[in-house]
Amino acid sequence: MPQKFQNFINGQWVDAKSGKTSANRNPANWDDIVGLFPKSGKEDIDEAVKAARATYEKWRLMPAPARGDILRKIGDLLVKNKEDIAHEMTREMGKVLDETRGDVQEGIDTAYYAATEGRRLFGHTVPSELPNKFAMAIRVPIGVAGIITPWNFPMAIPTWGIFPAILSGNTVVFKPASDTPKTATTLVQIMMEAGIPEGVVNLVHGAGGEVGNAIVTHPDVDMILFTGSSEIGKQISRDASATLKRVSLELGGKNAQIVMDDADLELALDGVLWGAFGTTGQRCTATSRLILHENVYEKFMEMLVERTKRLKLGDGLHPTIDVGPCINEAQRRIVQSYVEIGKNEGAQLVCGGAIANQGDLAKGWFYEPTIFGNVKPTMRIAQEEIFGPVLSVIRTTSFEEAIGILNGTIYGLSSSLYTRDVNRAFAAIRDIQAGITYINVPTIGAEAHLPFGGVKQTGNGHREGGWAVYDFFTEWKSVYIDYSGRLQRAQIDNY
Predict the structure, then answer these.
(1) Assigned fold of 7-251+459-478
(2) What is the mean pLDDT of residues 108-132?
(3) pTM of the model
C-alpha cells in the first residue's frame, strides 16, 4: 500500500477533517504512487490559523538572531539530506536530478541568507526637527502569513516565503501545490527537526479551490504570498482586498532571449536550450521567445534544431536524460493545444510538436521539445504563457526593434540579451521592461540573495528573494523619544 501522509498543525501530524486522501503520482510513470495526501478544507485551515495566531504572540518575542540560529540549523539539515530530497523531488515532479539538486541548493542558500538577516533587520535613526528628541524607525512582524506555492520549484519557492516570514517573527500557514506535497512534507519535517516551535509553521494539503481560498479569505490571516498563474493571482487580489490583507503576487511570464548578430552563437545556443527546455519549459522564467537578428537567423536556427533533436526525454532519475515530463496530463493537453494554435496561426513548426509516448515514455506525460520559426510577435504563441517545452522564434532587423518585441507582452519577469557590444548591453538594461535582465546569460538562473519578481502583469510590485522580501514580511514603526521634559509640538514650536 502507498504511504499515507498527514497535515501538520500546531506541532502534530493529523488527518484532514474529511478523512479523505488523494494519490500523488510520478509524472514520468503514472503507475508509481508517491503517497496518499490529505484532501483538506476550511475546517483544517481554521485549526491551522488558530494555532498560528496563538503561537505568534510568543514567537514574535524571540530575538531575531535566535530565530536565525534555527534557520541555520535548517540549512545544515538540508545540506545533509540534499541528495535524498533531490531524488524524491524528481520522482514527484519530474525534472532531472541536476535541477532538483539545484532546487534544494536554493533552499539551502535561502536558509543561510535568512539566518544572517536575523542580525541585519536594520532600521533607521534620523535627526528630529526638535531639540532633545530622538527619532527612529524599526521593523516589526505583522502576524500570520499564508504561503501558497507552485509545483515547479517545490523546495526553493516555499523557502523563499517561509524562511523570511518566520525570521521576521511571523507565523505561517503553508499550502503547497497538490502536485508536489511530498517535498513540502519533507521541508516541514526538517524544520521541526531543527527546532521550530509548535504552531510556527502549519502545513495543510489540498486543492487550491478549497484550501487556498480558505487561507486567502480567512480574517485572521494577515498577509498572502502567492506564486502561480496571473489568472489566479488576480482572483486572490480581489478576494484578499475584502480584509485589506497584504498580498505579494509572483505570476506569469513570457520571457525572451535576444541574440544579436555580434553574439557568441555557441554561447547563445547553450543559453536558449537551457532556458527553453530546462524544467521542460515549466518555469515562470523560461525562455519561451527567441528574438534572432536577421543576419544570424538561418544559421542559428540550423544549430538550434540540430541540438534540440538530440535532447533525450525520459525519467529524470536517469543521468542521461535531458528533459523530463510535463507535471500532469492536463498540462500536457495545454501544451498540445498551443502547438495547434501555433500551426493554425501560420507559424512554421520546425521541430517537435507531438506527444512522446513510445516505449518507456508511454506511462508518463512527455512532450517533444518544440520549436516554431517565423513567429509574428502578435501571435498567441508569442504572447501567452504556455508553461511547457515550446519555443517561439521571431526574426528582427535591429536592436531597437528587438527591444520593442521583447517588451510587447503583458508580462515583464525575465529577459536576456546576447551581444559583445557593451553599449547595447547597457541600453538593454535601461530599456527592457522586466524585473530581471541577463546579459550573455539565459533567462533562468536567479540567485537567492537578489530580489526576484517582475513588472506589468507578472506581479503586484513586491519582490521575493534577497533583502527586498523582508519589506513585505515586516511593518515599519516610527518611534519618537522626547527627553526635553516639556511639550514640544512638531511643525509648530520649531518654526
Answers:
(1) Aldehyde Dehydrogenase; Chain A, domain 1 (3.40.605)
(2) 97
(3) 0.97
